Amino acid sequence: MIYKLFTSLYKHTNKAVIIASLWTALIFVACFIPGSSVPKVQLPLIDKWVHFFIFGGFSFLWYFVLKSPTWTKSICICLLALGLGYAVELVQGSGWVTNRSYELNDVIADGIGGIIGIIMYVILFKIIDHNQ
Fold it and tell me: Cα 17–92–87 angle (5° rounding)?
């Protein structure tokens, strides 16, 4: 199933753009809802894990849009994930979103997630490429 999804996105850039765009929209919706609407979960650092996951997904999905993976493109996507995470935190800290605040640790989790998303893509790409 993962193999089919991966090859489907890899071969169809338009589909990859749509899915990556929807994921990006999901990030904005999730990060800009008022803090009072966010369910309280009693797990340590759960908010950092959520940031890690959603920005890992962001970089993983946007990497499909690229035709050929390179180090430069990897760095650009990681920086884009980090920049987006930073921008989200600035908006949250500005007071525009109620009951939200700026947290540097969220930005760090976003950046690490962006890096891991690229690493996961490269690993899957090598596995798929090796099997073809």
Answer: 45
Closest CA to 6 of 117, 124, 115: 124
Instruction: Quickly count: other Cβ atoms within 10 Å of residue 88's Cβ.
Output: 23
Q: Give the mean pLDDT of 62-76.
A: 84
Whole-angstrom distance, CA of residue 36 vs CA of residue 45: 18
Contact present, 78 and 118 (Cβ < 8 Å): yes
d(CA 87, CA 102): 10
CB 17 within 8 A of CB 65: yes
Q: What distance in Å separates the CA atoms of residue 56 and residue 77, rounded to the nearest whole number?
A: 11
The helix (run of H) or strand (run of E) holding residue 53 is: helix 46-63
Residue pair 113/55 in contact (Cβ under 8 Å)? The answer is yes
Q: What is the pTM of this model?
A: 0.83
